[in-house]
Amino acid sequence: MTATTLMNLGLILTHASVYQMLRGCVVVFTGIMSVIFLKRKQYLFHWVGMFLVIAGVTIVGLASTLMTGGDDAPAAKNPVLGDILIISAQIFTATQFVVEEKILGKYDAPPMLAIGLEGLFGGLSTAFLMPIFHFAIGVNDFASMFDMKFAFMRLFDSPAILISTIGSVISISFFNFFGLSVTKFMSATSRSTIDAMRTLFVWMFSLIFGWEAYVFLGAAFLL
């Protein structure tokens, strides 16, 4: 939940494609934590791959500061801070992947059960924290990300937002189930590597719909 919060805050401040590309650095954190906590051996080509990911993340971070958006898209609010939040979130995500692999390997828990427990914990935590942040920050900052009343008004007043929210919930459910299955039957590092592949599709759609302008440094990261 901490990782999701940091990533969503970062997404608000930077571009969607940069958000996805920077998430690729979770491979590095997962690989390092796998060595430390799971005692898994990483070979030379693993370390070379991690170095290339670090180089790519650096390039993308630089590219995000040069992006101005498409013809109709506004520039990012604060790409530097957004990038830092997204990269920081990957530490928590990598921790989650490694812990999940440890638990699934030790207790042989079915992925569906693990997903249900994670969802229950996340739902209860969100229901508990939302009112706190609303009354602490949201009531004094209308239409901000902490304004719970405004968020629910927009959710039910806009069919597009409601449909996209429901679609996101369904999509994330399948995403987490398949992700945990990969972790259980393969490894946390494999999951983080496969997860990074969606970066290409997000970047392509951002260009097709004109949400962002083409930046050569961003393309270099994908290569």
From TrEMBL:
The keyword Transmembrane applies. One of its GO terms (cellular component) is membrane. Keywords: Membrane, Transmembrane, Transmembrane helix, Transport. It comes from the Eukaryota. The chain crosses the membrane at residues 21-38, 44-68, 80-99, 119-139, 160-180, 200-222. Its main location: membrane. The keyword Nucleotide-binding does not apply. InterPro entries: EmrE-like, SLC35_F1/F2/F6. GO terms for molecular function: transmembrane transporter activity. It is found in: Membrane. It is a multi-pass membrane protein. Belongs to the SLC35F solute transporter family. This is EamA domain-containing protein.
